[in-house]
Structure formats: C-alpha cells, structure tokens
C-alpha cells in the first residue's frame, strides 16, 4: 500500500486557498464571472483541509481513503498549475498594460481555455469534498494528536535557539527594537517575514532577551504557534515563556486565558507569536482587540511567519511598512558562520584549500543560516579535500539556491542546463511558464537567448556565467518582471537593457569589454548584492552607485583599470561587506570620510599590488568586525586612527612583508594600533 504524504496535500491546499484570495481581489478582474465558483472552491478546500489529519490516520487500513487521497493529490497538483497559469496571465496583462500593448484576440483564446480548465478543476475538487461524509472522515483536534511530543520539542527548540550564537543580524535587531520602543503607535504589530531557515526565531529571541526590551515592557510573553492557530490552544497550551517584570511569575494554562483581560490591564506588554503558519482574520482581530483594549500605551505584538499573506492579515493596514522582511545573510557573515561550524579553533589556517572550497559551497547556500550551519556541521567531521569537492559539486546544494517563493511543489520550477555544451536554446522554453530558476552556466558556445524567454514572468534566477558568446539580450528582456538574481558573463553587455530590470536584488557581471556601468546601475535601486568581476576595460565605478541605497554587498574583482573608488563609495549607507581584489592600479582607499559607511562590517583588500595608503579616515568604520589585507606588498603601515576600530574582532595580514614586520606582537611598530583586536593572523599564523 502506498502512503500519500498528507503534509504535501496540506501545503498545496493552503497555497491554493491563498492564491484564490489573490485571484478574487486582482484588479484586472479577468475571472470575475467565476467569483461565486471560486468562493465555493475555497469552502471545499477548507472542508477538505479540516479532515486531512483523520485521513492520514486511516489511509493505511482503508484503501478507499487511500484512493481518496490520491484523487485529492492529483486534483491539487492540477489546481496549483492552473493558478500559476492564472498568475502568469495577470503578470502578462500587467506588462502589456504598462507598455500599452493590446492583444484582444490572444486574450480571448487564452481566457476561453482557462474557463474550461477552471470548470473542470471546480468539479473535481467538489467531487472529492462530497466524498468526505461517505468515508466518515471527521475533523480531528491536531493538538490532541501530537500535543505532548510537539510541545516538548517546541520548548526545547525555543531554548536551544536562545543559546545559539546569532551571526549577522545586528542591524535587523536594531531596527526591530527601534520599532518596538517607538513612542508613537505606528508599529503596534510587527510581522517578521522570511523563508524557513533564515533565523526569524533566533532574531526575535535576541530581541526578547535584550535589556532594552526587558526594561521597556512590564510583561513579556512568548508563544510557539506553528500550524495550530486557535486562540484557546495558543493561550491554554502554548505559552512557552512569560515574564512579569514586577513578579517574575510564569504564565500558562487555562487560568491565564480565563483572566487574560485582568492580567494585561494597565500593563505595557510585548507578545511574541512565533512561527505563525496561517491566521484566521476574524479570530486575530478579536484577539488583538481583547489584548490591546485594556493594556498600557506602547504595548507591542511581534509575529514571525514564512508567509506574506499571513503577515498582511496581522500587520497594520494603516502602515504598509509595518511588515519587516528578513533577508539573506551577506557574504561576509555567511563565510564567518560556515567557518565557525566547519573548522575547530586553529584548523582554518591549516587548510587553506578547504577554506577556498568552503567559500564556493557557501555561495550555494543562498545566505540561509540553517543551510550554512547544516553543511558546515556536515563537513566538520572530515578534512578530506575530495569529500569537500563532492559536496561543492553536488546538485543538491545548487537546488538550495531556489527562490524564496517555493513551498515544496513537485512540479518543475527549476531547470539546470549548466555545462552541457548547448549551442542552441529552443523557443519552447517560453512554454515553461512556472519556471523560477534557470541555470545555463558554462555553455560557452551558446550565442542567442530566444525571445520566448521573456515570457517567463515568474523567473527569479537566471545564471549565464561562462556564456561568453551571448552578446545581446532579447528585445523584451525587461518583461522579466520577477527577476531577482542575474549572473552574466559576456564580452558585451547592453547597459540599457540591464538597467530596465528594476527588481534585481543580486547582479553579477563579468564583461571584458565593459567600459561604463552608468546606465546599468542608475535605476537598480533594489540591489542588495553587486559583483563586478573581470571587467578589464572598466576604468571607474559610476557615481550613480549612490542610488543603490539598499546595497549591502559590493565586490570589485580583477578590474585592473580602476584607479580610484572615491566617487562610487559615497552614499552607500547600507553597505555591510566590501571586497576589493585585483585592482592593480589602486594606490589608496578612499580618502574622504563620507566614503565609509558606518554599517560596514567586513572589508577584504586583496591583490592590490600598488596600494600604498590605508587612509586615517578608516577609523570611522565603527561597525567593522573583520579586516583582511592580503598581497598588498607596498602597504607599509596602518593609519594612526586604527586603534579606534573598537568593534574589530579579526585582523588578517598576508603577503605584506613590511606591514607584517610592523605588526609583530609587542615589538612591532604598529602593535599598539592593533593590540585591542581579539584575533590577529599574520602570514597565516595567529599572534
């Protein structure tokens, strides 16, 4: 007997209900005639979802229930594809509306086909729902099914997360705490959104136990919610931590729920709802009203969730900025976290080859701390280079870079055609309307991308590294409205076309004939990561880089014509990691204080053979934690203000003969400037 994984059915059912809500509220009203059918479909889906736990228990002993689950699974898969197609059509209509394109005949044909598919799906789901009573399936109390085990696990997880060191979330912690302590009521509810594994719970643990929060609230309550949304269950069973500043007593159980109004009356409280999967809007509004009706001014609620739809319900409608989107870790934090898990103290300097391999592995983890810790822990048990290489080359880790909107669907969302010698890419790629991830790396004979690729309105990641013969993009490249990550290697890049991709978050460019980046950069205001590699003719970075106010990670590697970074570095107020490598004409880092963002935490200066000056204004880098200076033989000393870098934790100097001598422990002329640094490595030896 085949056991159907009910968790996938639950996930698919939840997604379908969310997508139906989007369809019903979409401004293009393409399917307004189906409004009542969609509402009935939502009701059927809710009825089906309610009995899935019972079906899961019965399927092993009842082949009729097993058949029912198989029919449900197939219907849900087809419904997911249909809703994806509907969303693709919405995106296409949006693009055409913005470009003032009218295609009435095509729209009529597409809508006619959609109408037929919608009718069939509605009938199939309804048939499945109508079988519930005949199979005697009933709604189970999920809490009763596994309450004791899950509560024990959830409590353990919460406390373990409290104890784990959190890396790279200092700025996020600061911003959320500022919202929570703000005197106005702009952020009564702060939903924190991000994909699984980003560290939402870990971040909120930091905030929950911060002294400013302890002093700022009379009462702090922590609740693990998961997929079990119910006011009664939340308060009766799931209060993990509750602290009253005046009495330090625990809060839990039925007594708490029955006297909740009295308990919070007149008090300023912070409530954390951790890992909210779904949220009943009516119950949420009732709960919020009950909690906030009698409390003191300044009370706050923080909710962590993977789903923007849930966050939208819980957030403040009057303030769209109340939602806090947690992003991936920047590269420097990723490397630090990986090395902390993969190497014991002192091992890193003994295995320089593994360090390099590890950096490539980290790139595949997509900035997700859980993935980085997992692979780091896996590799910590062996220092065999062949094993590390096998992990680096594994397709599994490539797939971990899948975009954030995926939730486990078994349908094709990713296509990896890297290094297979493609010379021609078929037009049929445009038929893969659900595609999110396309990897064409290493196909150095590929010359043209088909126009049909511009129909992939869901495409979020496009990798073209090593595709050196591609000299132009399709005419409608700007139609890739969802594109977030682009990696491209080409002798010629059409700057104007790249500049239209305003949704880009990460851009990696390798272009030997690129002379200017002005038109590429000036409109890419959403960029978080910019990597400029091997651009042999690029002689400067544009002043328009200052428009990239969200930029957190900047790498300029092997661009030998660049002589100065002064202009481009101004205004990058969010910059956290800067890598400068292979700039053979660079003689000094920027000499103006305004070029140095106080947010910068990681600075890597490598292979800059003419670099002679590290200016005194680097002392303004108040957040700098790691500084690596490698193979800069003409850099002779450190600036006088170096001792003011009080946040600096790690300093590494390699291949700088004179500077290495001056930094010798105690006797070196620059020793007093660096003595405060916790970890100092000179020529791979800790001193």
UniProtKB/TrEMBL annotation:
| Gene3D superfamilies membership | 1.20.5.4130, Helical domain of apoptotic protease-activating factors, P-loop containing nucleotide triphosphate hydrolases, Ribonuclease Inhibitor
Is Signal a UniProt keyword of this protein? Answer: no
The lineage's top-level taxon is Eukaryota
Give residue ranges for domain Disease resistance N-terminal: 14-98
Task: Output one GO BP term.
Answer: response to other organism
Pfam families named in the record: LRR_14, NB-ARC, Rx_N
Record keyword DNA-binding present = no
Domain (NB-ARC): give its ranges.
Answer: 170-344
Where does the Disease resistance R13L4/SHOC-2-like LRR domain start and stop, copy by copy? Answer: 411-590
Q: Which key words tag this protein in UniProt?
A: ATP-binding, Nucleotide-binding, Plant defense, Repeat
Query: Which protein is depicted?
Result: Disease resistance protein RGA4 isoform X2
| Gene that produces this protein | LOC101491727
């Amino acid at each position: 007997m085949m056991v159907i994984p009910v968790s996938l059915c639950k996930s698919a059912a939840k997604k379908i209900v969310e997508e139906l809500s989007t369809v019903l509220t979409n401004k293009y009203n393409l399917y307004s005639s189906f409004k009542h059918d969609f509402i009935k479909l939502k009701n059927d889906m809710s009825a089906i979802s309610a009995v899935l736990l019972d079906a899961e228990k019965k399927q092993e002993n009842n082949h009729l229930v097993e058949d029912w689950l198989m029919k449900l699974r197939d219907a849900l898969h087809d419904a997911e594809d249909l809703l994806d197609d509907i969303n693709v059509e919405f995106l296409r209509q949006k693009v055409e509306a913005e470009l003032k394109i009218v295609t009435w005949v095509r729209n009529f044909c597409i809508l006619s086909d959609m109408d037929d598919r919608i009718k069939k799906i509605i009938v199939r789901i309804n048939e499945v729902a109508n079988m519930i009573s005949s199979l005697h399936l009933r709604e189970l109390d999920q809490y009763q099914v596994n309450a004791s085990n899950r509560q024990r696990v959830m409590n353990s997880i919460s406390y373990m997360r409290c104890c784990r060191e959190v890396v790279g979330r200092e700025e996020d912690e600061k911003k959320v705490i500022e919202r929570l302590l703000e005197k106005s009521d702009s952020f009564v509810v702060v939903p924190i959104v991000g994909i699984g594994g980003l560290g939402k719970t870990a971040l909120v643990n930091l905030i929950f136990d911060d002294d400013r929060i302890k002093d700022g609230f009379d009462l702090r309550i922590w609740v693990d919610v998961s997929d079990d949304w119910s006011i009664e269950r939340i308060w009766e069973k799931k209060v993990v931590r509750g602290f009253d500043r005046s009495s330090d007593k625990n809060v839990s159980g039925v007594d708490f729920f029955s006297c909740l109004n009295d308990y919070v009356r007149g008090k300023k409280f912070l409530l954390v709802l951790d890992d909210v999967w779904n949220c009943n809007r009516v119950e949420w509004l009732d709960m919020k009203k009950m909690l906030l009706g009698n409390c003191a001014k300044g009370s706050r609620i923080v909710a962590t969730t993977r789903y923007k739809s849930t966050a939208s319900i819980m957030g403040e409608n009057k303030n769209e900025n109340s939602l806090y989107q947690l992003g991936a870790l920047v590269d420097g934090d990723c490397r630090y976290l990986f090395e902390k898990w993969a190497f014991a103290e002192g091992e890193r300097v003994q295995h320089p080859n593994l360090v390099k391999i590890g950096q490539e592995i980290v790139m595949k983890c997509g900035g997700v701390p859980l993935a980085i810790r997992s692979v780091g822990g896996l590799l910590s048990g062996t220092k065999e280079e062949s094993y590390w290489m096998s992990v680096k080359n594994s397709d599994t880790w490539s797939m971990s870079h899948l975009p954030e909107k995926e939730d486990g669907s078994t349908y094709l969302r990713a296509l990896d055609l890297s290094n297979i010698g493609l010379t021609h890419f078929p037009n049929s790629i445009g038929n893969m309307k659900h595609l999110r991830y396309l990897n064409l790396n290493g196909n150095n004979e590929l010359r043209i991308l088909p126009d049909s690729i511009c129909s992939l309105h869901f495409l979020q990641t496009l990798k073209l590294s090593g595709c050196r013969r591609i000299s132009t993009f399709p005419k409608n490249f700007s139609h890739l409205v969802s594109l977030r990550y682009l990696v491209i290697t080409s002798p010629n890049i059409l700057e104007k076309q790249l500049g239209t991709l305003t949704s880009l978050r990460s851009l990696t460019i390798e272009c030997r004939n690129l002379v200017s980046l002005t038109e590429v950069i000036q409109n890419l205001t959403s960029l978080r990561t910019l990597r400029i590699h091997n651009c042999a003719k690029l002689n400067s970075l544009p002043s328009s880089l200052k428009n990239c106010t969200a930029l957190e990670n900047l790498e300029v590697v092997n661009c030998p014509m660049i002589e100065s970074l002064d202009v481009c570095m101004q205004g990058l107020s969010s910059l956290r990691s800067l890598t400068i490598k292979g700039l053979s004409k660079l003689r000094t880092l920027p000499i103006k204080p305004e070029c140095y963002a106080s947010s910068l935490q990681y600075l890597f200066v490598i292979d800059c053979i003419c670099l002679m000056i590290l200016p005194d204004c680097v002392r303004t880098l108040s957040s700098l934690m790691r500084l690596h200076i490698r193979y800069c033989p003409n850099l002779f000393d450190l600036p006088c203000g170096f001792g003011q870098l009080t946040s600096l934790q790690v300093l590494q100097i390699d291949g700088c003969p004179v500077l290495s001598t001056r930094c010798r422990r105690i006797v070196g002329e620059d020793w007093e400037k660096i003595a405060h640094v916790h970890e100092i490595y000179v020529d791979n030896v800790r001193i």
